[in-house]
Amino acid sequence: LARPDSQATPGKRLILFDDLIGAARSKEEAAEAFRSMGLVVTDCFVLFDYQQGGQQRLMERGIQLHAAITREQLLNCFILCGFISVRMASQVDAYCQKLTQFLAEGE
Q1: Cα-based distances in Å from 9 to 6, 35, 36, 44, 72
Q2: Which residues pair with 106 in a beta bridge?
Q3: Coil, helix or strand for 6?
Q4: How far apart are alpha carbons 31 and 39 in whole angstroms?
Q5: Of 3, 21, 84, 105, which has the most beta carbons under 10 Å away?
Q6: Helical (H) or strand (E) element with 7
Q7: How far is CA 97 from the centre of its chain?
Q8: pLDDT category, 103, cuts 50, 70, 90?
Q9: Which residues are bridge partners to 17 per DSSP?
Q10: How far apart are CA 52 and CA 30, in angstroms?
């Protein structure tokens, strides 16, 4: 994510772009910085969504998340391609859900 430009024109629409999203803390910070300059932040585009609550957090702040692929989609693709078993995908998903809960408790 880029730093806010002091030359930004208030009222202009700004779209956030980043490589991935987890809990969305950095996206929240960036959106707040841009909004404090009068910019309108409505959307965030990422390549990968870890599905750790980031979409919900952004939605609560009026920002729509657009992800090229999610953790669930990637795991399903790996299953279909034969790279991992359904059991392994379930284990990975369970681990990621526990990690998400752990991170949320630390806030």
Answers
A1: 9, 11, 12, 19, 38
A2: none
A3: coil
A4: 9
A5: 21
A6: none
A7: 15
A8: confident
A9: 45
A10: 18
Rounded-to-integer distance, Cα 88 and Cα 74, Å: 13
Query: How far is 95 from 20, CA to CA, in rounded Å?
Result: 18
List Cα–Cα distances, 10 to 4, 24, 60, in angstroms. 12, 24, 22
- pLDDT tens for each residue of 21-77: 999 999 999 999 999 999 999 999 999 999 999 999 999 999 999 999 999 999 999
Collapsing DSSP to helix, strand or coil, 35 comes out as: helix
Hunting for tokens 């681990």 — which residue is that?
95
Which residues lie across from 13 on neighbouring strands?
Answer: 40
Residues listed for the chain: 107
**Full 3-state SS string of 53-107:** CHHHHHHHCCCEEEEEEEHHHHHHHHHHCCCCCHHHHHHHHHHHHHHHHHHHHCC
